[in-house]
What does this fold into?
Amino acid sequence: MMRAFTQIAAALSIVGCSNAIGHDSAEPSSKGTCGGTSAESLMWVVDSLRFARIEDGVSDGFDLDGEVSSTGGPSGCGRDDWTSPAGVAGIDNAFGELIPALENTEFIAAEALINDTIRTGELMLLTGVDNVDDRENDGCVGMQLSRATGTPMLATDGSILAGQTLSSDPDFEPIHLSDLSLEQGSVGGRPVTATLPVQVLDAALEFRLLEGGLRVDQLEDGHARGVLAGGLDIAEVLAIARRQNVADEVGDLLESLLGVVADLAPNAEGECTQLSVTFEYTATPVYLFDAG
It folds into this structure.
């Protein structure tokens, strides 16, 4: 059972060793809609990735369904929403409720494996902000999620070196949002809907992160942090569990467990069909070489 939980934890991550990615953003956007002649583009490579925890009712992330839900209430299938560190109500992060139980399994090892793939270059996700006239406050910027390829240069402590130039992955179609506001060094936007490649043991799979959001927070030392959140279709997650030869009793347990915490996209019978999940990341400033 522990191995099965590890497989599902890894599957719920966006760790990818496959080359394909689909761009399914619900609102097409184009670059160059704002920014002056001296506007700059900022780029970071994700150097750590973890599932967002819930502590004392507080979780980072997004209000994905536009509702402030509570236990037994009419919205969010009667699941509690959370409050962001900034005091914003309605944050959706149902997967965060499962983490305390997963902490007692091999889940922690799965997160460590995720970050190992970052340092080896198997997973180099990039977050960027473009059309920037003012790095602190700018009323019109763009934001993107993309990917680099190759092997990053590491410092002696194993961290990714800042200021290096990475090559863009030609098989990864960037997700771009435009006409956003940069406020006090932070910018967030949605929707971000994408098909993301994942690697679970020897299987190259794909997950759809639905109607999500991305945020980039600049730090004083030039680094960044942020969150990536969205909904996961429970039926797709369970189908992947079955394809991974998870025992029937474990699959039944997962079906019951995920159904209980599901909080998005209710069907005609009022049952939620999606599970909200939030990833927290930190990122190192880099430059990007685009061969295209």
User: Anything to note?
Assistant: The radius of gyration is 19 Å. The longest strand covers residues 203-218.
